[in-house]
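In the design runs reported in the main text, the only information available to the sequence generator was the tokenized backbone. The following block is the verbatim input for one such run; it is reproduced so that readers can re-run the procedure and compare outputs position by position.
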């Protein structure tokens, strides 16, 4: 038997808790106050700023072996990290479909960290919170109450789960032991679908060539005539169609496929119908937008993110599956160390690790649960509608400006356009304009390719964005474009405060009423 430590040794055993909690408690209060100040004053700073190389060098130190005071490390966070984040909290961030987070969700992260719960399984309250969130998601989508689901990092993983459940539904449980072999499974989706879908096919062992990309119509929606033709061709060639993925909010222009017609087609062809609703699925909470999603309630599975239009802090993706038995069949497994019992901590019925690839899972459900509980689904729906209304206003303003050209219809909240009042390579010019505007800190659009040309992409997702921010973006793009037209090598000098004041002074011609005060329309705690 190994020797046991004496009493003195027991007293010297290590712990990461402080002996005196008072200093750490004070630092924690300061952190919370500082972050509230950060959220309250977002408009006063730039949307984004590049991290200086000298500061990057400060983050190349070797693994720390000795302790450093918590206060010192927090000061490093304030100096090295906070000023150089992505910028998606800021109302001027419109480059990618990133949610703006919310203060209640921030506090929920603190609470979840304090509990440090592992939601892989067992019988405890945090898992019940996740189950309630899944029931809410099912209700939002029009799914049955007994639908299955699980929270994941994001829609990329949720779509992978959708592919795997569809694969299992087609081949049966043997797919998990025998693999896909020469089953010749093929799937179908829009040519405008997110790039995570080909990757999901790769990870499922099917290969990206087994995913048929179907061309879109002029509104960016998958053409159902071409889908039907390709399925027929594949069946005739001995292939096995097993999955069709509809898109609710395409990545480039925000188009929504005809989900109702796809549902009818998939049912007739006996093909699993999955919807990639990464952000568009949340349109179900906005009464005026809900008709665009008609048919989503007939899907076999839906993937979406709470961290986009629902404004939950990253990360919080979700997959909901209509047939709970099919979902469990694709992932359920037992091991001796995960033995389930009828009572005690090892109880609790189906564990989340039976519904996805993760055993170690954080308590991401809490921030979703608290966000919806505090603000309510109706208010979040109004935020969704508000961003789409702002996108329509931006499109109207672009259409009135001779120097700008809109590149695509606006289905939801994404506007694609470009600067055209110049000669030469307009693709290069517009890429430079976007970088100039980003580096100025005035706004943060991004780029994409629409109909073969590079354009400026404004995705309005943040609940803090208002009409003034729309005008600021347009004025910044025009200023950068005109400056580049004069000197193609020299970026313009632009300051957010100056552009914002000019936009506010001139007003938004052709729209109603004055600009909202900064902060209007945001998700502040009631």
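Verbatim output:
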């Amino acid at each position: 038997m190994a020797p046991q430590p004496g009493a003195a040794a027991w007293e010297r055993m290590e712990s990461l808790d402080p002996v005196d909690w008072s200093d750490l408690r004070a630092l924690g209060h300061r952190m919370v106050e500082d972050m509230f100040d950060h959220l309250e004053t977002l408009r006063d700073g730039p949307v984004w700023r590049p991290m200086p190389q000298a500061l990057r060098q400060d983050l190349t130190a070797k693994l720390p072996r000795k302790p450093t005071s918590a206060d010192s490390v927090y000061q490093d966070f304030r100096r090295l990290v906070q000023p150089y984040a992505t910028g998606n909290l800021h109302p001027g961030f419109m480059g990618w479909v990133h949610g703006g987070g919310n203060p209640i969700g921030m506090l929920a992260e603190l609470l979840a960290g304090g509990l440090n719960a592992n939601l892989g399984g067992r019988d405890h309250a945090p898992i019940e919170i996740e189950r309630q969130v899944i029931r809410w998601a099912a209700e939002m989508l029009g799914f049955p109450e007994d639908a299955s689901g699980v929270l994941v990092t994001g829609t990329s993983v949720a779509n992978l789960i959708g592919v795997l459940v569809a694969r299992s539904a087609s081949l049966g449980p043997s797919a998990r032991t025998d693999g896909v072999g020469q089953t010749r499974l093929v799937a179908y989706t829009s040519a405008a679908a997110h790039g995570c879908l080909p990757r999901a096919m790769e990870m499922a062992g099917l290969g990206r060539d087994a995913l048929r990309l179907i061309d879109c119509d002029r509104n960016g929606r998958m053409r159902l005539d071409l889908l039907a033709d390709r399925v027929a061709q594949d069946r005739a060639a001995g292939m096995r169609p097993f999955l069709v993925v509809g898109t609710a909010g395409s990545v480039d222009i925000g188009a929504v496929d005809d989900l109702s017609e796809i549902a009818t087609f998939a049912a007739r062809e006996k093909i699993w119908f999955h919807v990639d609703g990464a952000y568009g699925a949340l349109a179900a909470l906005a009464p005026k937008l809900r008709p665009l999603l008609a048919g989503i309630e007939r899907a076999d599975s839906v993937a979406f993110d709470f961290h986009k239009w629902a404004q939950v802090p990253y990360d919080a993706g979700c997959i909901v599956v209509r047939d709970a038995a099919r979902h469990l069949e694709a992932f359920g497994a037992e091991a001796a160390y995960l033995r389930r019992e009828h009572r005690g901590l090892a109880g609790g019925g189906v564990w989340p690790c039976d519904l996805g690839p993760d055993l170690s899972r954080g308590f991401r459900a809490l921030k979703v649960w608290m966000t919806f509980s505090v603000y309510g689904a109706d208010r979040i729906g109004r935020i969704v509608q508000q961003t789409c209304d702002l996108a329509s206003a931006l499109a109207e303003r672009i259409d009135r400006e001779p120097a700008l050209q809109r590149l695509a219809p606006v289905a939801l909240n994404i506007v694609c356009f470009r600067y055209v009042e110049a000669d030469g390579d307009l693709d290069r010019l517009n890429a430079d304009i976007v970088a100039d505007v980003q580096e100025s800190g005035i706004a943060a659009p991004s780029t994409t390719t629409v109909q073969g040309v590079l354009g400026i992409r404004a995705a309005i997702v943040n609940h803090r964005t208002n009409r003034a921010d729309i005008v600021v973006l347009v004025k910044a793009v025009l200023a950068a474009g005109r400056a580049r037209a004069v000197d193609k090598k020299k970026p313009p000098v632009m300051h957010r405060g100056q552009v914002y004041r000019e936009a506010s002074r001139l007003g938004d011609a052709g729209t109603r009423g004055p600009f909202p005060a900064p902060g209007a329309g945001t998700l502040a705690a009631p």
